[in-house]
Amino acid sequence: MKRFDLSLYLVLDPGLCRVRTMVETARLAVAGGATMVQLRDKEAGTSGLVATGRALMDVLAGTGVKLIVNDDVEAAAAIDAHGVHVGQDDMPAIEVRSRVGPDMILGLSAENEAAVRAADPAMVDYLGLGPVFATPTKPDHKPPIGFDGLAQLARLSPVPTVAIGGLKAEHVRSLFSTGVDGMAVVSAICSHRAPDIAARKLMAMIESERRRRDP
Questions:
Q1: Which residues contact 33 (CB under 8 A, 6 or more apart)?
Q2: What is the predicted pLDDT for the residue at 137?
Q3: Active-site residue numbers?
Q4: How confident is the model at residue 110, as a pLDDT?
Q5: Known binder of ligand: residue 42?
Q6: Any long-range contacts for 111-120 (C-beta under 8 Å, 24+ apart)?
């Protein structure tokens, strides 16, 4: 059985991480409590992703935090990353699974009810639901679904779920009332002057909300 924690899922953005680099941002965020890291860089190409990914794997070694590569299956395999995440318009999940084998974590974006219902738990390990809100970090995103839409999709999902799209600390309470397993953030950590402090604050809020709901 694959073990991973979606609670605080950091999606690295090369533009927002320019001051510290993605590797240093990830190191600090994990020190603060981030539970999963995704490498997303649409401009780097496979060779660039592999170089950054290998550095990230070194930083994450011994932490238990999983590295997920966005979209590029070839890079994920070369890095020996823990997983890969694809969208609805990328390579089909069944083909991704055939390429990466049974042990790699496979995440899939799902923006609507049809996509969630079509997700095969024999292929996919988790779903990324959203965008919850509009976000400038992904200008080509689908229409925002809001918390009501998120709750509907989370109820339907056959696998664990992580919400994404414009999420910040002030959204934690409303977010976890929808039944998702985690929140994915980009600017809330990458743009912060101290990524470790930002991650620590978010994790404290997440844990507090879970205690409130499950005393």
A1: 8, 199, 200, 202, 203, 204
A2: 64
A3: 40, 109, 138
A4: 97
A5: yes
A6: 111/142, 111/143, 111/145, 112/142, 112/145, 112/153, 113/152, 113/153, 113/156, 115/88, 116/153, 116/156, 116/157, 117/156, 119/93, 119/157, 119/158, 119/159, 120/93, 120/94
To the question of whether residue 148 is assigned a binding role by annotation, the answer is no
Q: Spell out, as residue ranges, where the chain has pLDDT lower than 50.
A: none
- pTM, entire model: 0.95
Q: Is 88 annotated as a binding residue?
A: no
- Dihedral angle at the C-alpha atoms of 12, 17, 22, 25, nearest 10 degrees? -90
Q: Is 71 known as a binding-site position?
A: yes
Q: What is the pLDDT of residue 79?
A: 97
Mapped to the 3 state alphabet, what secondary structure does 192-215 carry?
CCCHHHHHHHHHHHHHHHHHHHCC
* Packed helices 21-32 and 45-60: angle between N→C axes, nearest 10 degrees: 30
pLDDT score at 212: 85
Token pair 């992580």 is found at 162
Q: What's the pLDDT score for residue 123?
A: 96
Q: What is the pLDDT of residue 134?
A: 86
Helix count and strand count (H, E) for the chain: 9, 8
Cα–Cα distance list, 118 to 95, 113, 115, 121, 127 (Å): 15, 9, 5, 9, 11
Fold of 8-213: TIM Barrel (3.20.20)
